[in-house]
Write the structure tokens for this entry.
Amino acid sequence: MMRVREMDEADIGAVSTIRVRGWQAAYAGIVPQTYLDAMTDEGDAGQRRQLFPQPRRKSRDLVALGDRGPVGWICFGPCQHEMSGVGRVGEVYALYVAPDLIGQGIGRRLLGEAHAQMKSQGFEASALWVLCDNQPARRFYERAGYQADGATRDDVYDEITLTELHYQRVL
């Protein structure tokens, strides 16, 4: 039985493991392997421990709990860039599921709860960014009602430039 709840500081280590393993699985063959190999649970957890308790932090974090503790994590909040023609927009900043549990509905459940919370906070739409070459993630978000809107941005990983596509959906 899985449930979703607010993340707390005790979840940071597990969330960092989910995030790092998620990157290493989802972005293999997309992000340079040297970048993926340099990621560590400890490094990610250290950064997360500094950011998590910030009193003015506007993001929200939820974890999906399974038999072994946290098995998925989503972070969302106000959209970090302006979008014209749309009311208040929330943004999914990150969504990761333990790689061995992908396909079991955990990501869909986390995304659904994030959408419900964004809507209750007065957001009318949700946006997110997806690496152009991450076809499984693009299909996942498209099945959840997101559509690419034509906006792009580039990120650099170990001197390799990768393009992200902007997606949005009405809540």
About this structure: The domain at 3-170 is CATH 3.40.630.30 (Aminopeptidase). The two ends are 27 Å apart (CA to CA). The mean pLDDT is 94. The chain is about 35% helix and 35% strand.
